[in-house]
Amino acid sequence: MKANRHPAALTADLGNSALKLAAWRPLERGAIGAAHPAARATLEHGKGDDPGRLVEGLAAFLDQAAASGAAVQVAALSSVAGPERTAPLVETLSAVLKTRGVELYCGPDHGLANLCDEPHTVGADRLFAARGALELLGRGCVVIDVGSAMTVDAVVAGDPDATEPRGRFLGGAIAPGPWLLAQALATGGAQLKLIEPRAGVPALGQVTGAALESGVVHGLRGAAFELARRVGAEAGLADSVRVVTGGARGLLLDPEPFWTGDLREDPDLVLRGVLAALLERVGA
Questions:
Q1: Are residues 85 and 101 in the same domain?
Q2: Most buried one in 56, 114, 153, 284, CB count within 10 A?
Q3: For the chain, how many structural domains are there in total?
Q4: pLDDT tens for each residue of 82-138
Q5: Where, by residue number, is the active site (predicted)?
Q6: Which of 125, 153, 266, 268 is catalytic?
Q7: Of the candidates 254, 245, 252, 278, which has an alpha carbon nearest to the alpha carbon of residue 15?
Q8: Eight-state DSSP code of residue 39
């Protein structure tokens, strides 16, 4: 018989340049969608980084989590990085967790039916964000994740009374994120400087730098709106909630939201999806 509460868990997401961590207190069953992490951290982790610093950062985070009521019992990692970065991280993270009697699960099954034509090419972050959105809402939606790239994806819930996956990932769109847009302009234009995208810039730029900021920020917002609209319409989710996540999501939300319909923000969407997959994997 399963326990009435999930164990305290660590979820980790390795992206292009950083490792995002969330520690979760023991949860009542069915409470994943409403849960908030007890602790969060983002550790810089690029190729060639000092593993000693990573060990120190991981240990400090686990201590912080324990002090916040999340003494980790199970852990999972999702990664979109290549094997040259993922493998050393798995070794380091496993070693740190082993000293605390915790096993690391790498890439747990997201629990979704991936309906894309080439499912093996879909990034784990897109799938876990979709799973996290289903946990958050309990119904189909369009997910917008703004980071190095901006992804806009559609997911629908499975039948709770049938023995089928938790939901169906329908696919979506991938566009450049704000920093890629800024870098493309700076490298592609002979006299265009690199700008730092920031929320709330005016559309009417009156010097070149301000015009670049406008093009990147308002261009991103316009692309997000149109992709969220078209992806939703083509997926049969025109009137559904749009869920926004990712480190650059503020550009879509400030000073006013990019979407005029039903909109939710969740900074932990990918890690929420990893948590749901982990707890299913360990049968907790």
A1: yes
A2: 153
A3: 2
A4: 999 999 999 999 999 999 999 999 999 999 999 999 999 999 999 999 999 999 999
A5: 125 (proton acceptor)
A6: 125
A7: 245
A8: E
Q: Is residue 278 part of a domain?
A: no
Phi, psi of 48 (to 5 degrees): 90, 0
Residue 209 lies in a domain: yes
- 261 annotated ligand-binding residue: no
Check the annotation: does 262 bind a ligand. Answer: no
Residue 50 labelled as part of a binding site: no
* Angle, vertex CA 145, rays to CA 144 and CA 149, nearest 5: 120
Domain residues for 102?
Answer: 9-107
Q: Is 148 annotated as a binding-site member?
A: yes
Distance, CA of 41 to CA of 281 (rounded, Å): 24
Question: Does residue 124 have a known ligand-binding role?
Answer: yes
- CATH number of the domain encompassing residue 175: 3.30.420.40
265 and 128 within one domain: yes
Domain end: 56, 72, 107, which one?
107
3-class secondary structure, 190: coil
Q: Round to whole Å and give the CA distance between 74 and 27.
A: 13
Domain match, 28 and 133 both: no
| Total-model pTM | 0.94
Give Dmax (Cα) for the chain: 67
* CA dist., res. 2 & res. 9, Å (int): 16
